Amino acid sequence: MIPRFTDHAANERTYLAWVRTAITVMAFGFLLERFDIFLSYASRAGGQPISNLHTRASEWLGLMLLLFGALIVLFATFRFYRNRKLISSDETFAYGGRLFERLMAAALIAMALFLIVYVAHQIMALS
């Protein structure tokens, strides 16, 4: 039997949840990077191409989300192995590692605010 199996299993489930989150963030980044195709199609379908659409912003934000997803996997892997080592240890440790979660939350909030402003601007340009 594996000592502290439930703790190791919880650590692995948490790691897999981070990986799923990273895949979702990267998929959204890819979709957003290709958002300019939708915008140009929608503007042409509306009767006239609109020249003031800022599609470069969606491309850059999509690329940032792709990189952010890769960083999530990297940091989640480091955290998984650190927690695995701490679980196997007989010593008692204080729970730590909240900085990464706070930085990710702040980055996602900043990206969400940018998306709100960006999409609102694009909708106004299409109107």
From TrEMBL:
InterPro entries: DUF202 (IPR003807), IM_YidH-like (IPR052053). The chain crosses the membrane at residues 15-32, 60-81, 102-121. The keyword Membrane applies. Its main location: membrane. It is a multi-pass membrane protein. It is found in: Cell membrane. Residues 7-85 form the DUF202 domain. GO terms for cellular component: plasma membrane. It comes from the Bacteria. Keywords: Cell membrane, Membrane, Transmembrane, Transmembrane helix. This is DUF202 domain-containing protein.
